[in-house]
Design a protein that fits this description.
The protein is α/β, with parallel strands linked by helices. It has helices at residues 16-31, 47-52, 71-88, 119-122, 127-143, 153-159, 184-187, 204-216, 233-242, 257-266, 281-288, 299-304, 317-328, 331-347, 350-358, and strands at 2-6, 36-42, 59-64, 93-96, 110-115, 147-150, 167-169, 191-195, 222-227, 249-253, 269-272, 293-296, 310-312. A seven-stranded parallel beta sheet has the order 3-2-1-4-5-6-7.
Length: 362
Amino acid sequence: MIIGVNCCHLSNKTDGAKTRLINFYSLLTKIRTKTRFVFFVPKNLDLKRFKKEFNSDNTIYHKIDIFSYNVTKRFLLGIFFWPLMFRKYNLNYFDQSYLPLFAFFKGKTKIILTIHDLRYLYFSLDFFYRYIIFKPVVKFGIFFSDILITVSKNIKKDLKKITNKEIKVISNFIYNNKTDLKNKKLLNNQFIFSVGHSEKRKNLDNLIKSFMYVKLNGYKGDLVICTNQGSYYEKLQILKNDHPFSENIKLLKNQSNQAVFEYYKNCELFVLPSLYEGFGIPILEASYHNKLILLSSIPVFKEITFNKLNYFDPKDPKKISEKILSILKNDKTKKKLIKLTSRVNNFYSSRKIINQFNKLFK
């Protein structure tokens, strides 16, 4: 069997889709030793570093003359290029982790489409883009897929409004236990930690605003946020600079996976204030380190944590601060939440989930 994996959306930065792809295929390539895997990668991806994630003899890497951020060219690949690759490598399956893919001449190749979220239906201000472009693209992409996957029941519910096709829910997991200490001085401090791209839906601005109330109520530590140079970064930087406790806010760009895991390991509380997510891999990363976790009250966060952790109204900085303080000041609550965190970590077992994924390839 030969499985093709479309990696043309990947860059050297870390995001949920990249984490999922590496986690799944770093295990699957070891489980399916008689299967060949062809990874199609963009020219701006560090291929040497990418190969180290797999370290298997049954992998092939095909570099394509495209940048991961070139959405238009990626779209054209779906029409003209992929059918040629299907035939060249005689692919049985082709795993597609982003939209669109309109493979009109796919032959015997079965297409697996994973939809991580529908953020552009909720966080695009342009009505035309939402309903005239994005929604039809989703429908066409689903139409040409043979196996449709999403990452949570919450996203499956949204997809049911668009398609009648069978939808499989295959959750995320984490597969990383190697971390390197990057900043001894910072990690020796007491701090609250958060992580997320610089986007409106990540709601990091309200977390920064809430930190003022936390400090005014006597908190001695810092707020550490790992983010990237996204569309919202300048706003976050301005908020930090104008903040009365600016010196206690660390806004860190483009940190390595090892560094981010070190912040997880050393924080006293992890806070994820998102307004919208398809899943929430950082929750698994924090639970892996048995951390206190505080989440926004969005449905998908309650789903993947069994509605057992502590949640807050993400649109109200004052309420965010009240939840933070109530957890940090109550030792009984801390012990209870850490036990529940362990349950989350145990539920999203890599063995269970990868076996579910492996069964797709017949």
